[in-house]
């Protein structure tokens, strides 16, 4: 029997297997880790909480400026690219890509996966 938890884990694993992605997580809007595939040494709970805080702050800022809700946030550094996207009213999808990863295919796949998560929850 396939449970929602198993489906979420499969979505995360499939996304992580896409070239250039180092870490992937599905997080509740409250910042709780629901499912993830991350390298050793990353504290998943902290990663989840800070990602939800970051997207929540961006949503507050853009709403306050009367610009609507952001579709995603991309944070780029010398060592990676963090993509955080809403996946319905209850969840977020967060991906860490390598610094040299092309965002085109990754963004397409992140959007597809976020839509699947939204359908499940």
Question: How does this model look, in words?
Answer:
The structure is a single chain. The chain is of the alpha+beta class and 121 residues long. The protein has a single domain (4-120), classed as Beta-Lactamase (2-Layer Sandwich), CATH 3.30.450.30. Helices cover 43% and strands 27% of the residues. The protein is built from three helices and five strands; from the N terminus they run H-E-E-H-E-E-E-H. It has helices at 4-16, 44-64, 103-120, and strands spanning 21-28, 33-37, 72-77, 80-86, 91-97. The chain has a five-stranded antiparallel β-sheet, with helices on both faces.
List the helices and strands and how they pair.
Elements: H1 4-16, E1 21-28, E2 33-37, H2 44-64, E3 72-77, E4 80-86, E5 91-97, H3 103-120
Antiparallel strand pairs: 1-2, 1-5, 3-4, 4-5
Quick structural overview:
With 121 residues, the chain is α+β, with helices and mostly antiparallel strands. The protein has 3 helices and 5 strands; from the N terminus they run H-E-E-H-E-E-E-H. The protein has one domain (4-120): Dynein light chain 2a, cytoplasmic (Beta-Lactamase, 2-Layer Sandwich).
The fraction of residues in strands falls at 25-35%
Oligomer: single chain
User: What is the CATH T-level topology?
Assistant: Beta-Lactamase
State the low-pLDDT regions, or none.
Answer: none
CATH hierarchy class name = Alpha Beta
Q: Which second-level CATH architecture applies? A: 2-Layer Sandwich
């Amino acid at each position: 029997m396939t449970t929602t938890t198993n489906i979420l884990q499969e979505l995360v694993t499939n996304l992580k297997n896409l070239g250039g992605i180092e870490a992937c997580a599905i997080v509740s809007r409250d910042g709780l880790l629901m499912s993830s595939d991350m390298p050793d040494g990353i504290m998943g709970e902290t990663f989840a909480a800070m990602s939800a805080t970051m997207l929540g702050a961006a949503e507050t800022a853009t709403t306050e400026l009367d610009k609507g809700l952001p579709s995603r946030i991309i944070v780029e550094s010398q060592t990676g690219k963090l993509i955080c996207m809403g996946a319905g009213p209850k969840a977020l999808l967060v991906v860490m890509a390598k610094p040299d990863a092309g965002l085109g295919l990754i963004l397409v796949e992140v959007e597809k996966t976020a839509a699947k998560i939204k359908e499940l929850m």
